[in-house]
Design a protein that fits this description.
By secondary structure, the protein is an all-alpha fold. The protein is built from ten helices and no strands.
């Protein structure tokens, strides 16, 4: 069941709680033209948040998979690369990385990137360290007999990972990957510091216009809550579907 009821109840409770005092709900009142304009301005940042999160997650998974596979390589230099990458970027805060990529790359490497590209690169690089560890654990959880059976069929190392190991590993690590997606969505709000027009940036701009931070940030909380609940619902549904497919594939 979609979690819309839970999402709809929260704004009602917040409105009831704010009936007294100095709350100015008129700035986000859908019945008021100014409130409609403010709400539309905030909701327009939703696509920016989603696009940034999806792009960063896609790049992060690709980087994480490459780093994870490097940890299983025969060559020691690749295994060292795995450890250095994971330990380095797992220790750097995403906010610091965003600022360094956007302001540091033009100075250090004479590479200028746009706001969106800088945010995607910074978030993806930091998150890829966590994705690499998640995928490494999933790959290591595959029984040795699966590797031996694939090798007996004459599959190459790449074919073994592609057709036998990775499909099973992805099923097992889907819950933590879903958690990382939620984490990336929340961390996308840090891109507001370099001017990216996502949900948080638009809320900040609206606050300095209407001078009602409590009401604006309350709506911002509701927006993130609705987005995160939707993602959580989709991930759980995908988990159940893959779990059902796996049970059907099992004998008996």
């Amino acid at each position: 069941m979609m979690p819309w009821r839970r999402v709809a109840v929260l704004p009602a409770l917040l409105l009831l709680a704010g009936c007294g005092g100095n709350w100015g709900w008129h700035v986000v009142n859908p019945a008021d033209p100014r409130g409609q304009a403010n709400l539309r301005f905030m909701v327009d940042g939703l696509w920016a948040t989603v696009s940034l999160s999806v792009a960063a997650m896609a790049v992060s998974l690709a980087l994480g998979l490459a780093v994870a596979l490097a940890g299983f390589a025969r060559w020691r230099v690749l295994r060292w690369f795995n450890r250095v990458w994971v330990e380095l970027f797992r220790a750097v805060p995403i906010l610091v990385m965003i600022l360094w990529v956007f302001y540091g790359l033009p100075v250090v490497l004479d590479i200028r990137v746009g706001i969106f590209a800088a945010a995607v690169l910074a978030i993806a690089v930091c998150d890829s360290a966590f994705e690499a560890e998640i995928l490494r654990g999933g790959i290591q959880s595959i029984e040795r007999g699966q590797h031996e059976a694939a090798q007996a069929l004459g599959l190459s190392a790449w074919q073994r990972y592609r057709f036998v190991v990775l499909p099973q590993a992805i099923r097992r690590v889907l819950p933590p990957i879903g958690n990382q997606l939620v984490y990336v969505v929340k961390m996308s709000s840090l891109a507001s510091v370099i001017g990216y027009q996502e949900l948080t940036r638009r809320a900040n701009e609206l606050v300095v216009t209407v001078f009602r931070p409590l009401e604006i940030y309350t709506i911002l909380v509701v927006e993130y809550l609705a987005l995160i609940l939707l993602i959580s619902w989709a991930v759980r549904r995908l988990e159940r579907r893959l779990g059902a497919d796996q049970r059907q594939a099992m004998p008996g």
